[in-house]
Amino acid sequence: MKPEALSKNTRSECIRTGYAKMNINEHLQDLHDELKEYQTPTVVHPSIESLKPPSKWSLASLLGRGPLKKSSTKIPPNLPKGLYMYGDVGSGKTMLMDMFYETLPPNITSKTRIHFLNFMQDVHKRLHAMKMEHGTDLDAVFYVAADIAEQASVLCFDEFQCTDVADAMILRR
User: Fold this and answer.
1) pTM > 0.70
2) Exposed, middle or buried, 100 (CB in 10 Å: 0-12/13-18/19+)?
3) Residue 57 to residues 42, 135, 164: CA-CA distances in angstroms?
4) Which of 4, 29, 33, 92 has the fewest CB atoms within 10 Å, measured from its CB?
């Protein structure tokens, strides 16, 4: 992100809201610089079969070992950490995020900027569609997450607020 563009357009707003004290511009610039070097890994979709629960009558269960555990998704060690901005209504959070989004480095070819509520509604809709197509015993979270990761390597949420327990459980995974 061009620091002069961010600073010039937000200087008075940042001073008024206290963002200057929090060095938000520096944090946004650091994230931008990190993203310049970031190479998005290839997204691997789990197979539908791997998302189904193990059979109750398997050799492992007969031997008293119980069902085999599913392997968890590995998070790349070089994955840039996100940034969470908070503050009073009208303090410029959305404006800063929009400017960050619009000035992402050219190597970031897939990006999404969405209101958090709309994002979660889309996730629930995709999960429901997967269960209707493949059965209700399917754990579709990893499949839907892979779809989202394929569509965007950077997600910018506006109005992030998680008050729904089901949403929290999905986000945790």
Assistant:
1) yes
2) buried
3) 35, 19, 35
4) 4
d(CA 14, CA 138): 47
Q: Classify 133 as helix, strand or coil.
A: helix
Look at residue 57 and give its three-state secondary structure: coil
Give me 110's structure tokens: 């897939």
- Token look-up 């963002």 returns 19
Taking Cα atoms as reference points, which of 67, 68, 51 lies closest to residue 135?
51
Using CA atoms, how far residue 131 sits from 71, 86, 128, 146, in Å, is 21, 35, 5, 16
In order, the DSSP letters of 80-105 are PP------STTSSHHHHHHHHHHT--
Mean pLDDT of 97-118: 94
Angle among Cα 38, 41, 47 to the nearest 5 degrees reads: 160
Local confidence band at 68 (pLDDT 50, 70, 90 cut-offs): very low
CB 88 within 8 A of CB 149: no
User: How far is it, in rounded angstroms, from Cα 29 to Cα 14?
Assistant: 15
CA distance 130 to 133: 5
| Residue carrying the six token digits 């070992």 | 65
